[in-house]
Amino acid sequence: MLNARTVGTACLALVMMVGTGSSLLMAQAGKKKAAAKAAGPVPTAAEIESAEEIYKTKCAVCHTMDGNSPIPNMNFSDGEWRHGSTVKDVMSTISNGVQGTAMMPFKTSFSEGEIAALARKVRSFDPKLK
To answer: Could you give the CA distance from residue 19 to residue 13 in angstroms, rounded to a whole number?
Structure first.
């Protein structure tokens, strides 16, 4: 037999379950949004193609074609990222350079999409980030 107390308890349990589910969905959405922000802009196919050529002509001189430079601070494959390893971090390094090093700023030389594509390319040399 159902009484007001039993119905009230069942309703409260249902509300708590629904509330918990929506809180979890909101948390997951927040994580996805943060991950997308860390991933930076998505380059177009043309920007990716352009970045491949840019890497060959501008970056490989110091970082080598396979990103495995014998100079530790210029090596992309050793898993050591002094300035951060997210796409956004690497984009910032490419855009702003690193003062006191040979890494020049390229923000006025390339589009944001090309820089995003370059960041993804150099990250691809690190087996830990794949």
So the answer is: 10
